[in-house]
Write a structure and sequence with these properties.
Layout lengths: L12 E3 L15 H14 L3 E3 L8 H10 L7 E6 L1 E3 L5 E3 L3 H15 L4 E6 L8 H13 L3 E7 L3 H8 L6 E5 L7 H13 L2 E5 L11 H10 L3 H10 L5 E4 L5 H14 L20
Parallel strand pairs: 1-2, 2-3, 3-6, 6-7, 7-8, 8-9, 9-10
Antiparallel strand pairs: 4-5
Helix pairs in contact: 1-2, 1-9, 3-4, 7-8, 8-9
């Protein structure tokens, strides 16, 4: 089946969780650097910028909306609804249909879009029928406020149930090189057959994978950065798989783009912007 989402040559996304403050809570430490990250990601040819209304909350979407409003073209923009933060930075699922619709409208305002490219259910609630949650997002799509609907943190069985409510364009699950189970492989294969994009979040396991001995040894044998090994394992799962590492640093955005370009044999065929004047050192 033809994929619902169309990508450019660089099969890489930018996760927007680190554009907000520490632990994705509060404003960013350096708002200018967060804006630079978005612009560099666009200039590097990333396929998608992914965020959520709970990152900040709201800060990540605002920064992305402000940055993209200054550009003539942009990558696919995806956001997630259905998770909220409390005053102590805790996370909780809030997926009542009326709240999902209201949250989607707020995301559009912050992203400065008439319609978001991909509106995703951040995490299924166990207290509300999945069909009601997905149905609410499909209603948003039918109103013209979202072009596609996606799901996050779901099983294959949940995906099949969700498809009964309408087309699903993407699944976003936690995948990394040392955590790919038989269930993950079955889901990835099903998505390929159905034309569903798989977005792999936290592909570096919050950075720990880059110093993991097996990954480091593989990188040394191949003579490539550890990031290229970690991302390459995911890219090799299929041309419908897009890693979306989160970053608040231009240095890491550049390194990730170069790693993916080299792995895919795109060196010299995708943009490699010059170094930015200031690079934050945090991952």
């Amino acid at each position: 089946m033809e994929p619902a989402l169309s990508w450019g040559p660089l099969r890489l996304g930018l996760g927007g969780n680190r554009l907000a403050g520490p632990e994705s809570f509060g404003p960013p430490r350096d708002a200018k650097e967060s804006h630079r990250v978005v612009h560099l990601a666009c200039d590097s040819g990333v396929a998608v910028i992914d965020t959520a209304d709970c990152y900040g909350p709201y800060w990540s979407e605002r920064i992305i909306g402000e940055a993209l409003s200054r550009r003539d073209s942009r990558p696919i923009v995806a956001t997630k609804v259905g998770v909220v933060r409390d005053a102590s930075a805790g996370w909780s699922v809030e997926a009542r249909p009326e709240n999902l619709a209201r949250a989607a409208e707020g995301s559009l305002r912050r992203l400065r879009l008439e319609a978001v490219d991909v509106l995703q259910l951040h995490h299924p609630s166990t207290r509300i029928p999945l069909e009601d949650q997905v149905g609410a997002l499909q209603d948003v799509r039918r109103r013209g406020l979202a072009r596609h609907i996606g799901l996050c943190n779901v099983t294959l069985e949940q995906l099949r149930r969700a498809e009964r409510e309408g087309p699903i364009a993407s699944v976003q699950n936690h995948l990394h090189a040392l955590r790919i189970t038989p269930d993950d492989l079955r889901l990835v294969a099903y998505c390929k057959d159905r034309g569903i994009t798989v977005m792999a979040y936290q592909p570096f396991a919050e950075g720990s994978l880059l110093t993991e001995p097996r990954v480091v040894r593989a990188a040394e044998r191949k003579g490539v950065p550890a990031a290229q090994v970690a991302l390459g394992v995911l890219l090799d799962l299929g041309d419908h798989v897009v890693p979306i590492p989160g970053s608040g640093s231009t240095r890491h955005v550049r390194a990730n783009a170069e790693a993916v370009a080299d792995h895919l044999g795109l060196a010299g065929r995708v943009s490699r912007p010059p170094a930015a004047p200031t690079d934050a050192e945090h991952l």
